[in-house]
UniProtKB/TrEMBL annotation:
The keyword Transmembrane helix appears for this protein: yes
Keyword vocabulary terms for this entry: Membrane, Transmembrane, Transmembrane helix
Name of the protein this chain belongs to: ATP-grasp domain-containing protein
Parts of the chain that traverse the membrane: 16-33
Length: 340
């Protein structure tokens, strides 16, 4: 019965559809743009300093290194195969204490991201991780968002076409229902229930007192139950000034999304207390489209507009002398990405 209920939920809410279905109409537009650009990989010049323009196999650490220290969480790059005593010593040097966030350096859509609460969890993560990864300071600020920014090569100022606000998955107790029962009552939670209920910090039989709220997922990814809301109305001149200046710290950066945290919405709107968690390139989505109230056709139109922007930025950068990736380069990079 739960499987049938989940199927109906996914069927009636396009935000849960598989990525390939969502993007299928865009494929033909991409082919048309490729013909106009005379390159299947025209998008790689949108952000020439990012691997494949940031579409895939892009190092998060490489981008974060360019940002001012005060605008990012303390971050440690961990080479695959590193020894725990060495990493522990580096954490002490950086004054990084648990809880911490661990994530693949070259990963997407929240895969492999984990909140680690002790040394044994870090040890297991290191043993299970096949690739290089990052350890980041856990920013406990309650406000999290993704802000999309782009700037044409011949312009000094850019635009903010998309802001997504994130609401973390949580349940509120009624004093009688178990945690498992509460999860089953929420469609968004029910879709990820199998993974949630297997976590060591989740007791399916726990009964929360009435009115008590419990955070189930601290990682702000849509495929882990986080609700995405359209926050485009909050784009303002102060934010544009802030991200115009920030974009110039990133070499040849013109298109992408900044995933961030801040103490509150009010602080965010003033550009105060912002911490950049990740910088995403061409692979980044204007994630406000996944608002539960959003319509599929509106989302498709938004994606079409964004790929037109990618095309125009790439064209401008080619006029500046940047060349798109060759087929051989793209194939090599793709194989490395799949192996990882």
């Amino acid at each position: 019965m739960p499987k049938l209920t989940n199927f109906i939920t996914k069927l009636l809410h396009w935000e849960f559809w598989p990525t390939w279905i969502v993007y299928f109409p865009l494929f033909f537009y991409y082919l048309w743009l490729s013909l106009k650009a005379r390159s299947l990989f025209f998008f790689t010049t949108a952000n020439p300093d990012m691997e494949k323009g940031g579409l895939y196999n892009c190092s998060k650490y490489k981008q974060l290194k360019h940002l001012p220290v005060e605008l990012k969480p303390t971050t440690l790059f961990v080479k695959s195969g590193s020894r725990l005593p060495l990493i522990r010593a580096k954490l002490q040097t950086l004054d990084l204490d648990f809880p911490i966030i661990a994530k693949p350096d070259r990963g997407e859509r929240g895969k492999g991201v984990a909140l680690l609460k002790n040394l044994s969890q870090l040890k297991k993560y290191m043993e299970d991780s096949p690739t290089d990864f990052l350890i980041q300071e856990y920013i406990s600020d309650p406000f999290e968002a993704g802000l999309f920014y782009y700037r044409f090569p011949d312009k000094h100022s850019g635009k903010i076409p998309s802001i997504v606000l994130k609401t973390f998955l949580s349940v509120t107790g009624d004093g009688k229902s178990t945690l498992k029962e509460l999860i089953q009552q929420i469609p968004r939670a029910r879709l990820v229930a199998n993974k949630l209920l297997k976590r060591e910090d989740v007791n399916p039989q726990e009964i929360l007192p009435s009115g008590t709220k419990k955070l189930l997922e601290p990682i702000g990814n849509h495929n882990r139950g986080t609700e995405f809301s359209n926050g485009n109305q909050f784009a303002n001149q102060e934010l544009l000034y802030f991200f115009d200046a920030l974009s110039y710290h990133l070499p040849h950066f013109h298109y992408g999304r900044f995933d961030l945290k801040a103490p509150s919405l009010e602080d965010f709107l003033k550009g105060h207390g912002i911490k950049i968690l990740e910088v995403n390139g061409v692979n980044a989505e204007p994630a406000h489209i996944y608002d539960p109230k959003g319509k599929y056709l509106d989302a498709i139109n938004t994606l079409f507009r964004h790929w037109k922007i990618i095309f125009l930025i790439s064209k401008g950068n080619r006029q500046e002398g940047f060349l798109p990736a060759t087929f051989e380069m793209a194939l090599k990079n793709f194989r490395e990405w799949k192996q990882n």
